Amino acid sequence: MDTNNIGSLSMKGGRNDNFYFCLLEYYPDSKRWFLKSLLPVKDEEVNHNDDAIHAWINNYDVKQLVVDFPLSKPAIECASDAEKKIDVVQEKIKNLLDEDQKLINENPKKYEQERNKADEIVYNRDIFSKETAHHLLSRSFKRRLKKGFLPYWNRTLDFWVWKYYYDQILEMFNTSFDSFGNVSLMVLFRFNYIKRHFPKELELFEANAHIIIVELLRSKIILKKDVELLSDIDLGYETRLETIKKIESKLDIFIYNHDLEILVKNPRAFDSFLLALAGQNVLLKKNRELPDWTMPEETKFIIPDFGI
Hints:
alpha/beta; 2 domains
């Protein structure tokens, strides 16, 4: 029986955390997905696990792997036409701020009224009722734009993510997407060390757990309360179990009880599982296409679409 698979690896977390290789396998004939393997590796034991990592990739014939940190360099260090793409991003930022200022100048009273309304705390507000880059721009998004795009720190991809996810990520996770602001050099060096044992033909992709969760929420696979409780010290375990069960049901993924227990008990394993869901999108060719100025051939960034 023919199969397709895709692996994932989350390396976020502290030095003493385990990281996990996760493998999803697809059987086209029966249209069924299986969580085939979870391989835990302790950071301090990488030397002893080199053979295990290499064997895992070879034994399962893994051709594609999704990770959660930058695969490309800051904008200024990228393609030969990097400066042209940087100019595109900076012009887009300027246009958004100019449009916002135009609304203020044309009718300052109306602008202030709408601003006050937008600032009201509404607990049941639909976070998808407005795209981040649609006017009125939120105060936090305007501050982010005014800070500017730093080509030696940001990738052009960052601005695209800000446009479509800044407000949602800030509201749900109290953080923002920043290519090199949320990843340590230790993680990059650690991956470069492990990567030496990957086959040359292995294709790498990048994804972001927060974006994946937002898209699961957008597709109504999970609920807002699920997201809010995932990081709760007391209820996180139970919430992860309920969340995984919903994903398993809606995305037709079969998970063995042993692996389910690992996913529930280990947040790092759960993060790798989320990355594998983005990989599922790649195999199904459902991931969104990104504009050329985001340098998609270099970033290999996955924006999943879980619409059912």
